[in-house]
Amino acid sequence: MTDYFMPSLIYFAAAAIVPFIAAPRLRATFMLAVPFAGFASFATMAYGTYAFMPFFDFNLKIFRLDGLSFIFGLIFSIAAFISIAFAWHIRDRLEQVSSLVYAGAAIGAVFAGDLITLFVFWEGTAIASALLIWARRTPGAIATTMRYFTFQIASGLLLFIGIVLFYRDTGSVAFQHMELDSLGTWLIFLAFGFKCAFPLMHNWLQDAYPAATPTGTVTLSAFTTKLAIYALARGFAGTEFLIYIGAAMSLFPVFFAAIENNLRRVLAYSLNNQLGFMVVGIGIGTPLALDGTVAHAFVHVIYKALLFMSVGAVIYRTGTAKVSDLGGLWKYMPWTMAFCIVGSLSISAFPLFSGFVAKSLILSATASSGHIWVWMALVVASVGVLEHAGIKIPYSMFFGHDRGWKVKEAPLPMLLIMGFAATLCVLIGVFPQTLYALLPYPVEYEPYTADHVITQLQMLFFAALAFALLIRFNIYPAEYRSINLDFDWVYRRFLPNVLRVVTHYVTVIWRVYARFADRRIERALMVIYRAHGPQGALARTWPTGSMVLWIAILLGITLGLAYL
Amino acid sequence: MIPQAIISQLPILQVIVPLIAAPFCALLGGRNRAWALAFAVSLVTFAISAMLFASTLDGTVLSYQLGGWAPPIGIEYRVDALNAFVLLIVSGVGALTMLYARESVAYEIDERHHGLFYSAFVFCMTGLLGVTITGDAFNVFVFLEISSLSTYALVASGAKRDRRALTAAYNYLIMGTIGATFFVIGLGLLYMITGTLNMADLAHKLVEHGDSRTLRMGFAFIVVGFGLKLAMFPLHLWLPNAYTHAPSAVSAFVSATSTKVAVYLMLRFLFTVFGFSIPFEVDVLRTIVLPLALIGILAGSIVAVFQEDLKRLLAYSSISQIGYMLVGITLLTPGGLMASIIHLFNHAVAKAALFMVAGAYVMQAGTSTISDLRGVGRDMPFTTAAFVVGGLSLVGVPMTVGFISKWYLVQAALEQGWWPVAGLIVLSSLVAFAYVWRFVEAAYMYPTPDGVIRREAPLTMLIPMWIFAGSSIFFGLNASLTSAAASRAASGLIAASSLIWQ
Question: Between the N and C ends of chain B, which has fewer C-beta atoms within 10 Å?
């Protein structure tokens, strides 16, 4: 290997070639080969740091291969493969190029051995992913792109300032474990938090992901947030603070997901909630917990892609992802339904599906580290996952209210890649030790013990029972209504009503504050515009006399200084 | 190989070759004859400055005595690391702009004026090179006038496209003359004290003489005079009009060289001549120049955000970029100086590319108004891509030259513990992003207006444009070349001054 080698180069080179391949099928096939080439390039290398590049006074370590970066490299390679394969029918070169650059930048960031390299790739993912959203080209998507990009750039800026400060404090730019003991590390932490969609920094995610093309969303869901998970795991493992952030993160999106009508947005909230589990794992920071985080990231990328793909396939056929417009598709899209249910079972952590083997690692680590309240929060969040991702997603698309859609099954390439992802979900669930063998820390763990399985099944069944009871309870009053409408009522009327009471005061306070801030900002902008706009004092250039006056004033001041 | 006799004459050849060629350009007239001569001359001057640069690489200082008269009586040309670097910038930009000018000037200026135009162009180059190379303070004034007078004429020659060029040139004339006059007054005061005009000798005698009110007056006049020439806020008022209404080739050349040479002069006088031998000089920089530079950085960028005309937008961005260089100077540290000098080069490269892009739009689309250039990214992909590269460099995105200079500048500011200054630099980068984005958005995200046909710019314009755009990436990746030259020049300046640096 040469000194400058890095797997991301393969993606960038491919991205440079792709626009010039005229035949669409050839282009898609070529793209499909890229993740394989990318993975093959580092699959057999020994752990170590390879590519060095002098830059100013630093010696950049562009390519660091160790347990943690290896498995994330693998995760991203799989994600790249899935999203490229799902986009088989896409002909838009902008979308194709930006998804390749995006994947390449994410992989480059994972292998970055120092903060400067990390920053460059960090910004790379921001730009490429913004282009990916923009590729939908609707006015709404362009506006969303701008909002999304602002968030991403803010994250990059924080990271940059953080790095500069960190370098000044420590004289090093190595990307290693950091302590939250200085402004620099706090800023870096915040930058990671932005991309990780910490609570109150999360809105870009629900805003942007549903706005992309159906294929673009699959790509988006894989990289940015998992890159942030990687960065947190690398830099801030064992930071106590993260446990509580993670717990909050896993809880709050559950309620939003329940009342959301747009299925892609439901999935975006659910993504947020899943990240919460991983963040808790990082916060605990024991080898078991970190392994849990990594394993969860691994399986999560696959089943979340699977769910996004099934929703994407439905959008592809029906043109909508709204709960209120969908229903009864199981007759027409049976395969999509089956794959979607596999994804749902995985994300709900049913035994024998991939979510179970990863989530129980995190739950065990939480319980064994003595954070009993956090453990309970996670259990409650798991119930929420079952409700919105496990039941709501497949239920509202394929069963529920039949809206009279007569559509064809998803096209074969889509089915194939969904089948691939679904198979992976089951295989990992059945043979967890293959996944465990890849984890960065050696761990002895057996998910299929009697108490694990029983606890989980108890929880799942009681959660399901609770819903069933609610449904039954609500069936009787409504005579001619079918189950689905009543069930609708649960998350359309009942939960919002509860939430409304809770959030009413928050909203009022927030609105007052926002209006106040809005007016402030507007007024500030007006002041700026009045001074700097084309007619403003600072942009006026014509009268020669005023220029000369300025010279006189300045000279006067300078001369005045001489007498002091 | 070139005989030694010629090598020793290089400093004078640098100035005399274009000086002699300029009148001939006027005589040759149109049909590309004047252009061909001007282009040939600009290539020769570039070759000369490249050789000068190479021979000062090892730290030698070339001294050339005009007419064999020894300094301080005779005029001396001195080439050291700093001005060899500036000479290289001026002649390099000159040569490439000349290549660019052929098509652009043919479009923007009547053919019967071509001879005069190129003559003025070469005179302007002569003046800028002369200002840079000379070691004699009064000679600076002479060359400054040569360059300024020809620039007024060049700006006024934009009148075919836009009559406002005449008013702009008039304004520039008034302001420029005041600036030059201030400089001469200041110089006169220095002469009163020392009785000499040679820079090295001046420096020596000023230290001997010590503090006096006359010296302070002289310092104030000279700093304000140069402040005007380099468009320091709020003395920048001549610049936006001049750059907007001048012919595009002139905008590209003047924006990349003229203010940079003025910055060089500021450096030369502050460090080599005055040398901060009295505290007053430091006070002026810190209490007057620094705040103004900071205001200029922000105000220039914000005004640029609201501009409707691309060339005007770029002009205001120049004002903000000059602020960066001034901040670097006022730091009075090797790091700050180095940032300033490296930004001198980096900004010249990026701005030349950007103004060339604007000129290509003027020629192919007939306008430089942003709203009329909607959708131009599809019609003129290479030109617009060059704008994106140059724009990213203005913002200071990593892997462009803009990042390199901002990095050094922020570092230098932090070294001094000037946190707010560093913060402001970062903030203004965000504003810069806003004005660059405004154009990028218009160029790529909106459809072409109906009935507008625009073709890609000709190759003779694309090549120089992309050489600059390419260099702003190349030197952004491989900064060791420019940073080595800048740090040599900076340590030379510090060594010449009375500043004590640990």
Answer: C
